[in-house]
Design brief:
Layout: H1 7-16, E1 24-26, E2 33-35, E3 38-42, H2 54-66, E4 74-78, H3 79-93, E5 96-101, H4 105-108, H5 119-138, E6 141-144, H6 147-152, E7 160-162
Parallel strand pairs: 1-3, 4-5, 5-6, 6-7
Antiparallel strand pairs: 2-3
């Protein structure tokens, strides 16, 4: 996992720890801490990776993970920027792969006409679509952020879990009918 434990990863972790004992390792430098009894550790002491393009990001994270002594049981990859790394690591370590979709091309590609895209955007769109399809095919579990995502996903998945990507209004003081 690359990044901090935001609300989304907390929801995923809450689901995951009901079935598994785990430790979360991140490629970002963090001081070790616990989240609901789950240790969160960093694989690197270096400063945060600079995003210089998708290939650099994937390659940097792969190098950090492959050079560590950590051997994962499960890899979690979120959306198309992380799917390729996740698939590579699944085979490198012979471990389980969970793909999570928060912002998937298949969820919004119906909102535009692919024929009206310029050539560069057509290529990007095709790469994203192929990457999402690969993720669904390779994942042991595919986590969707909504029932809508699960319904509109055009790819075959081994197992689908829905973990809603929404705000729990009970956790906030602002009433639902609040008007600015």
């Amino acid at each position: 996992y690359s990044g901090g434990l935001g609300v989304r990863i907390q929801k995923l972790l809450n689901w995951f720890i009901t079935e598994h004992e785990c430790v979360v390792y991140t490629t970002q430098p963090v001081d070790p801490y616990e989240y609901k009894g789950v240790p969160v550790k960093s694989l690197t002491k270096n400063t945060k990776l600079k995003f210089a393009g998708l290939e650099t990001y994937i390659g940097s994270n792969l190098e950090i993970i492959k050079n560590s002594k950590f051997v994962p049981d499960v890899i979690l990859a979120t959306d198309h920027p992380c799917i390729m790394s996740g698939v590579q690591l699944k085979y490198y370590y012979n471990c389980k792969l969970i793909i999570e979709f928060n912002l998937a091309l298949f969820s919004y590609e119906k909102m535009y006409d692919p024929e009206k895209l310029n050539e560069a955007n057509k290529i990007r769109s095709n790469i994203m679509r192929d990457t999402e399809q690969l993720g669904c095919q390779e994942a042991d579990v595919t986590v969707m952020c909504s029932g809508y995502y699960a319904d509109v996903c055009p790819f075959q998945c081994r197992k689908v879990e829905v973990i809603p990507n929404a705000i729990d209004t009970k956790e906030f003081d602002t009433p639902v009918d609040f008007v600015y």
